[in-house]
Specification:
heterodimer; A: mainly beta; 11 strands; 0% helix; globular; B: mainly beta; 4-stranded antiparallel β-sheet; 49% strand
Chain lengths: 115, 114
């Protein structure tokens, strides 16, 4: 069954530094992958998604992710971190069930941005 | 356009009590689902519905019931609350369960069972 693994429960970067959040997937079929962000005391917001086509996906707030089939990865990056990027980030994959699809999440990575 | 609305935002229950977490969406989404979020475990799917009158179990359904009598509403019922159900609960909806659609999430209900 399709699943995702996020490497690193916490990542700390300095303001202005590169942000790299890692996600690896497990899937026997072409996966549909998502990144969500959760700001403190809020729900989840879709950052970007990969379905088909271009492997480099651009999302909101300057984030992007690249689908690499050879590495089974879908890492999230941002060239320059901003204080407002501090949040928890979730990688997710669509898993096919008996009658429909289900969105399955990784365990999350909390991003801390240091001034 | 309110999106996905969850009520209440906070709730404290005693062990054995019952309650219903409400979820409503005004986007005419067919697909609705409930997740629970626990530290270090991400979000885990409890129950989901692909349309009015149709529900199914997710990864962690035990202790929870759902029904879907209308397109707009998808309540989650705890029949006999247990401390292990202390968590933050999120409702999400989508146009369909199709792989290409992102989900819209509510702001969550923080539940504490003592």
């Amino acid at each position: 069954a399709q699943s995702v693994t996020q490497l690193g429960s916490h990542v700390s970067v300095s303001e202005g530094a590169l942000v790299l959040l890692r996600c690896n997937y497990s899937s026997s079929v072409p996966p549909y992958l998502f990144w969500y962000v959760q700001y403190p005391n809020q729900g989840l917001q879709l950052l970007l998604k990969y379905t088909t086509g271009a492997t480099l996906v651009k999302g909101i707030n300057g984030f992007e992710a690249e689908f690499k089939k050879s590495e089974t990865s879908f890492h999230l990056t941002k060239p320059s971190a901003h204080m407002s990027d501090a949040a928890e980030y979730f990688c997710a994959v669509i898993r096919r069930g008996d009658s429909s699809y289900k969105l399955i999440f990784g365990s999350g990575t909390r991003l801390l941005v240091r001034p | 356009n309110a999106g996905v609305t969850q009520t209440p935002k906070f709730q404290v229950l005693k062990t054995g009590q019952s309650m219903t977490l409400q979820c409503a969406q005004d986007m005419n989404h067919e697909y609705m689902s409930w997740y629970r979020q626990d530290p270090g475990m991400g979000l885990r799917l409890i129950h989901y519905s692909v349309g009015a009158g149709i529900t199914d179990q997710g990864e962690v359904p035990n202790g929870y019931n759902v029904s879907r009598s209308t397109t707009e509403d998808f309540p989650l019922r705890l029949l006999s609350a247990a401390p292990s159900q202390t968590s933050v609960y999120f409702c999400a909806s989508s146009y369909s369960s199709s792989r290409t659609h992102g989900y819209t999430f509510g702001s969550g209900t923080r539940l504490t069972v003592v």
